[in-house]
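Figure 2 data, in text form.
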Amino acid sequence: GRVLAWFYVAIPVGSALGYAFGGKIADLLGWRWAFYLVVPPGLLLAACCFFMREPRATSVAATPPPLRDYGALFRIRSYVLNTAAMTVMTFAIGGFSAWMPDYIFLDRRSEFPASPNLLGNIDLTFGAITAAAGLLATLFGGWAGDKLRERFASSYFLVSGMGMLLCVPATIAVIYVRFPMAWLMIFIAVFFLFFNTGPSNTALANVTPPTVRASAFALNIFIIHLLGDATSPPLIGVVRDRWNMNVALWGVALLMIVAGSLWFWGAKYLPADTNAIEGAGGSRSTKSPSCS
């Protein structure tokens, strides 16, 4: 859990840097430069990846798994419920992060001192909060999942579900608490939004056979982004236009409850699904308890 947590730290930190510096660059140079300036580091990273040495393929990896192994993923109940919970969570994160700076600027600007660079300052503050809260939550969530596993076999899902439920009151409080105190509520909400990152991805790896693990992650990533943060900003925008942003935030809070409930539901199956992989030496039998 802690290893994957370090890997997934890139998501909140990278997103936060985009908000923080993108807003300031747009204020100083215009919005187009916020896109121009990411091209050089992107090309540099692409060049580094191009010249990376591929690891040698093992005899196991060289043999494609049968098609039925991929279909078996949908019979692993903890995998399905984890993917569903992560999809709902990603929907909430996508809407929260996409609309929060505009919501603060358009609907709550009277709570700030007048400034010609108010939107850029809001983006910078929101980005800094997201970076700090996301970094701490991702690392601490991974540690908590590993630590509690000594006592609870379902700790990865329990930690993920509890984090989502604790996020709900902070999200609702953002609506009613005035700034600058509302920044603290945003910090708490973002912290618990990212608390599941390490545990949920660790559980994903633990319940999938090594022969299809890469495909299991690819399918999970495709689903959670297609139905999650790719969909939520326009849908939340529709809610904002039809009613207001406060209603949209209430909707996001309710979805957090749904995500947490799905993880708690999955906790019932996680131990058996994990043991099925470990007991089979890394491969799953189609007659495992989670496939019945």
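Caption note: Residues 283-292 have pLDDT under 50 and may be disordered.
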